[in-house]
Design a protein that fits this description.
Elements lengths: L1 E7 L8 E4 L14 E2 L4 E2 L2 E6 L5 H17 L25 E9 L2 E9 L4 E9 L5 E7 L2 E4 L19 H7 L3 H11 L1 E5 L7 H8 L5 H11 L5 E8 L11 H11 L3 E12 L5 E8 H4 L2 H19 L2 E5 L7 H11 L10 E5 L5 H4 L7 E6 L5 E5 L4 E2 L2 E2 L6 H6 L12 H7 L4
Parallel strand pairs: 5-16, 5-17, 11-15, 15-16
Antiparallel strand pairs: 1-2, 1-6, 3-4, 6-7, 7-8, 8-9, 9-10, 12-13, 13-14, 17-18, 19-20
Length: about 425
């Protein structure tokens, strides 16, 4: 489970900013209790608000970048870049490394893992373990070398096998280290997806629909959302060049035949009831999911696989722009899955960015689950929670009208557009 994520000097985040999922002492929404462990009370997720270009997506991108570096680090050659962009709007930060750090629980043991990287190398790296309250180092990597402590025997003698652009944790995992393997598995279940570019995630949905035990769960979810179809059929088809449009250039046809000949493509058909003049069901009509269903239906289908995969494994799901193309009730339905005792038996967590202010009222989110991102005049993003926000030294009350107050700019993190009437009057005539 995720306890805290921290980033600094990455994209629009200049200073060190952290999102903590440790529950505070507030008593908001007793129907949405925190996850209770031996030593922690952890939130089931968080929602991030902010104006366009405020840095919401950059915070999610920081999470996905850390995951990518951890899971893909060992695959890089010694000459490959790490694809890191620091905060570029300050002369001092552009040459400094970016920092990523995460606190999390594995088998009730708390780990703190992090690193500093630039585009070509790992500048520093560290891993700490806390079986009780005292945190002990497992390894610390600095510019002059890697110090492996006795409690991390699996890392011994692997220091010299670690390239400058490779994470030491990934190297130890390649040699079957027990602790490193458990941490890598945690990162494998730390899933980040885009709510705007979600086409690639449907492979997970396909896999679940082909599983006879998992398909009913997804189908029941679709039925509850009333998406308009009665069933789903997976269609597998071998590439047939005769089905290509007749007006394609000959050179393109030849290239496609070369690339796809013999390959199998997977498609989705939605099944709809077809009626006769007496309003009796005659048959089920097949619709092509991609071309005949709405963009919202396609999105729900594509991301439903990752959603239920994380729910079944108890991982962490991060979604950027969850509400894009979705009706507010569909967005609410997704978020409520993670607050559901029926569906979230493994204490999965959901963190997402959105512009859907309805969730501030209907989502049953505690104040410590609501975060705002706002840029300052120097182009640097700030991150703060509603629970930490105060006015004249006083915290926001739990009976405040959060949605109305946010729209009116009380908490910041909204676009400043001035007087809308003035804007309309000045709009140039076409």
């Amino acid at each position: 489970m995720l306890i805290e994520f921290t980033v600094s000097n990455f994209l629009s985040f200049k200073e060190r900013k952290s999102m903590s999922l440790q529950a505070t002492s507030i008593k908001d929404h007793p129907d949405n209790p925190p996850i209770i462990t031996e030593r922690y009370k952890l939130l089931k997720g968080a929602v991030i608000y902010g104006a366009n270009a405020s840095g919401k997506s950059n915070f999610v991108k920081a999470m996905s970048t850390m995951r990518r570096l951890v899971l893909k680090s060992f695959e890089k050659s010694s000459t490959q870049d790490l694809d890191i962009t620091p905060f570029l709007l300050h002369t001092g930060s552009e040459s400094e490394p970016s920092l990523f750090e995460v606190l999390f629980l594995v088998n009730n043991i708390r780990y703190r893992y992090g690193f500093e990287v630039d585009n070509t190398s790992v500048r520093s790296e560290w891993l700490f373990e806390a079986k009780k309250n005292i945190e002990k180092p497992l390894f610390i990597r600095e510019s002059d070398g890697i110090e492996v402590f006795p409690t991390f025997k699996e890392g011994k003698d692997l220091e010299e096998k670690t390239r400058d652009n490779t994470l030491f944790l990934a190297v130890v995992d390649q040699f079957n280290g027990t602790i490193s393997k458990a941490i890598m598995q945690w990162f494998n279940n730390f899933i980040t997806i885009s709510g705007l570019s979600h086409e690639s995630y449907k492979a997970v949905t396909f896999k679940m629909l082909e599983n006879e035990d998992q398909k009913p769960v997804l189908q029941n979810f679709y039925n509850r959302l009333d998406l308009g179809f009665d069933d789903i059929k997976i269609v597998k088809k071998t590439f047939d060049p005769n089905e290509l449009p007749k007006d394609l250039p000959e050179a393109l046809v030849k290239q496609m035949v070369t690339d796809f000949e013999g390959k199998t493509f997977i498609g989705v058909k939605t099944l709809h009831k077809k009626y006769n003049d007496k309003n009796e069901i005659e048959m089920l009509e097949e619709f092509d999911m991609r071309s005949q269903e709405s963009s919202g239906t396609n999105k729900i289908f594509n991301i439903s696989g990752p959603i239920f995969d994380v729910l079944s494994d108890g991982g962490v799901l991060i979604i950027d722009e969850l509400d894009a193309s979705l009706h507010p009730l569909l967005t609410l339905a997704v978020t409520k899955l993670f607050n559901s005792k029926e569906h979230n038996l493994k204490n999965a967590q959901l963190v997402f960015s959105t512009h859907d202010t309805n969730l501030l009222y209907y989502g049953n989110y505690r104040r410590d689950q609501v975060f705002f991102v706002e840029k300052d005049i120097y182009g640097a993003s700030d991150l703060y929670s509603l629970a930490d926000y105060s006015e004249n030294g006083k915290k926001i009350r739990n009976d405040s009208s959060f949605e109305k107050d946010y729209i009116q700019g009380r908490y910041g993190a909204i676009p400043y557009i001035g007087d809308i009437k003035t804007l309309l009057n000045k709009w140039p005539e076409k």
